[in-house]
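Hello,

Our lab assistant flagged a job as stuck in the queue for most of the afternoon. It eventually completed. Since we weren't sure the result was trustworthy after the delay, we are filing this so someone can double-check. Below is the sequence as submitted and the structure that was eventually returned. Let us know if re-running is recommended.
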Amino acid sequence: MTTRRRARFVRAQMAWMLGATLVLVLLGSLSLELAFVVSLIGFLVVTELTAPFAVTPDWRRRLVWIIALGLAVFGYVVIRRILAILPPGVI
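-- returned structure --
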């Protein structure tokens, strides 16, 4: 049963990422940063929507590390964007 749930999680995440990439391409705004942010949002949504009620399998406990890494990279992207917007003499 765990393998079926894990496969459902992976299929949902892949569908989200492919759909998001397709939408970004159709809108003409595909960039690595934007694709990463949309994929991270999808990862968080899929993780929450597929969470079991009673028992958490080991593979889901390891998702915490992936989420932490994704949020750290997201923070880096946000800081880079803020520094790009600020005038040169501010910092």
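-- support follow-up --
The delay was a queue issue, not a problem with the job. The result is valid. The chain has one domain: 2-85. The mean pLDDT is 90.
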